[in-house]
Amino acid sequence: MITAIKQAIQMVLSGDSQLFQIIGVTLRMSLTSSLAALLIGVPPGILVSMYNFKGKNALIVLNRTLMGLPPVVCGLLCYMLFSGNGPLGYMKLLFTVKAMIIAQVILITPQIIGNTESYMRLICDDIRATALGLSLPKGKILLLALNESKYQIISTYLFGFSRGIAEVGAVSMVGGAIAFKTNVMTTAIMNYTNRGDFTMGVALGMILLAMSLILNCSVYLIQGKVNK
Asked: What is the distance between the alpha carbons of residues 72 and 168, in angstroms, rounded to a whole number?
């Protein structure tokens, strides 16, 4: 074990091309999917928290259900959609990074909506009072809500990104963990460990843990600003 750790550290410091290619695919996938999920999820999260309408509670329950969607189920649905016999098979997305991004967007978006809705519910009364006092139209109320929750939105994005880099089930199913194409850090750790290549697995695990530590420290600092 100690030998594997030493070799893993040497691999990281030497700038192993295969190692950093896997990291590059992971970052491309996770950054894109978490940003897309943020853009899709924040507006409905704000609207659901600030306005009352028919079916609101049903939407909240549905979203909370989707927040617990197992990644392998998401992967199965995406696989069926993108396979040759599926309705979107003509797009030839199966076993591509694009398919992995779509699967992650499906997984992350409910988390973004839920986090945004929970936070906005705490400050929506203050926003309504400010908007009423300034006689703001609905469009500007949304902009005011975005401004008041900017740190929380950044924190939510980092949360989505951390979910993206740690996910394995869905991306493995729709990406196929193809070397030099769709192999990401989580699937690579699993594959290299199964093959007995502990050096690469440990190296990727160390980098993944370091990324997780940086993300959690960033979220902690941002949450401190939110709570002030």
From this structure: 9
